[in-house]
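Mods, move this if it's the wrong board.
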Amino acid sequence: MPKSKRSLVQSPRPGSSVTLPASPSEHGPRGLLIVYSATVFLSAFLLFQVQPLIGKYILPWFGGTPGVWTTCMLVFQVLLFGGYLYAHLTSRWLGPRAQAGLHVALLAVACLALPIIPGEAMKPTGSREPIAAIVLLLGLTVGLPFFALSATGPLLQDWQSRTHPGRTPYRLYALSNAASLLALISFPAVFEWLFATPFLARVWSWSFAAFAILCAISAVGMASRRRTIAAEPVKAVRRDVHPPSWGTRLQWFALAIIPSTLLLATTNQVCMDVASVPFLWVLPLTLYLLSFILCFESERWYSRTYVMPATVAALAWAYWLLGPSNDTALWVQVSGFFSAFFLCAMVCHGELFARRPHPEYLTGYYLVISAGGAAGGIFVGIVAPLIFPGYYELHLGLFACVALMLFVLFTDPKSRFAKGRPSWAWLCFLGGAGLFAALLLDRAQDAGGYGIAAERATSAPVTQSELLSRERTFYGILRVRTLEINYKDQIRPAQLLLNGQTTHGFEYTDPELWSIPTSYFDEASGVGRVLSQAPADKPRRVGVVGLGIGTLAAYARPGDAFKFYEINEHVERIARTQFHFLERCRGRLEVVHGDARLSLEREPEPQNFNVLVLDAFTSDAIPMHLLTREAFALYLRHMAPNGVLAVHISSMHFNLRPVVEAAGAAHGLSMVTIQSEVTNYGGLGSVWELLSPNSDVLRTPRIRQAAVPPNARRVLWTDDHASLLRAWLDW
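Not the wrong board. Structure tokens:
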């Protein structure tokens, strides 16, 4: 949210005191100005550093899903609104000394929450949708410090107006913006690369303590430097200033809620099909802040003549990306969605600045803006998952932006549209009509997009595709579809489970084919070669990270024990009610709910798995916390001495092979890469990395004949340092 460019001067009340008009000799001490500046800079830097920091800290605890960041942003925006409300009310109703005393007490209580490192007891223990757990965790760790930081910007601008009435608060505004951008850019570019996350959390906590001292000095300095006179003369000067109408306030709210909604919806859209990583969180947040800075800096940065047509073009680009064929290059998707978001934010914030009130009402103005931001977070994080069966937030946000442009062009007397010369307005109108159809785009993807994906994967024509069920969860949108697909040169009916654009397996509907492993797990795949070659007289213990429809249960034999780790309990219900692999499993079957890594950490004793399969896809990439050096050490603790770790690394956008091989090499494992092609008995083609402490296990003829040449490049991920950017560049 923006920091005020103008001083937050309050309307005086009868009998109250106001600040004396300042002459050059009546400015406050220069030392206090320096303290104000340092406090504002440090507060803004800490405010925007802690968001990706704490998000990265807790992301692995909740499965690495995009919903974690959405919930974090919801909490941050609500706390930001609380901070603005606190600043507004205390500036309006408390005298300087009472306000200073209250704020010093708040800072002292906030320091009691330090350090902000979440404890082990806060880790989730089940698979229930974790929104409440994330909100509680953030409230107990960063809640009070974040609240205190949120109030700093408007408070110190108000304090400067009292102690230095002849000074413009623009310096504080500029410092705040510079610190915010520096924090957002430096976290993924510098701090995340160089320092461990726990160390960063401790440094942040120490820095907050330093901020609290500076802010307390500012509060005491403000209270001690107060000089006042009676309020009546000033009130007479402002008699002709009218408060903003409720219609104007409603426009402020609408202009704030739309970019806030688009911020989270766009981030979700990109992370759902790529991966949930700090870089993809910080980039749209930086664009959001940049649009505020440009629009609130000067009117010259926002011109309807240029920005609105560019926005329509960007929206057309985003619409094309949202269409059924969603296999475009990663950089095209990221640039397209983020360009549309940035230009929509420029329109909203430009119009918001054009409707700014008299300085007397600025605190209320920024309070409404922060309320709109919080409402956008609540809508995307809580309301939309409850009322929408599909992912409609981005479509609604884009449509709302076009509706806003039309409203502006219709209602502003200065616009050409209102004067009868539509010009660009007709283009916006046509864009709005097209965007209205976006509400049906999700169903269009169901009808065609997934059928096209299946046809491309199997080299067979899909002649039928019908949506059987769809449900939205914290971890994504689960869809079950029917389609007709090739089996031994015959077209057979089948059912497919998808989470977003990620296939979680399919099953032929013919009961005679229910036991045939398909998709990425057929007998030609890497995991299929391992599970189908084991001696029949020895029972096996097999662990599987990621359930899907339970396809790997088809390899179970009497006496085998298969243990699946699945974070989304809805997936198990679908696998049991709409598919048959689990039902027909011939071995002993167990499904453990919760994040696989946390579940393995809590196992009371080693599981002694003969085969441990890693197939936990939430997006196009495996959650990063499952591919680190520390994660592989955990897997080895639960594997038999001759066990095999099978890692599924098929990906449209990333080359995960160097990552997996580097983690394996760090533990001295032997490695083989198996790349299978599309088969005529249900195989979709896949890439698997097989690793084992015993190289002889990987030297069987069935594995060696499918092995691909070794890879020279290796990129080691750890819990503290991991980046998908390298994996994308290698691809």
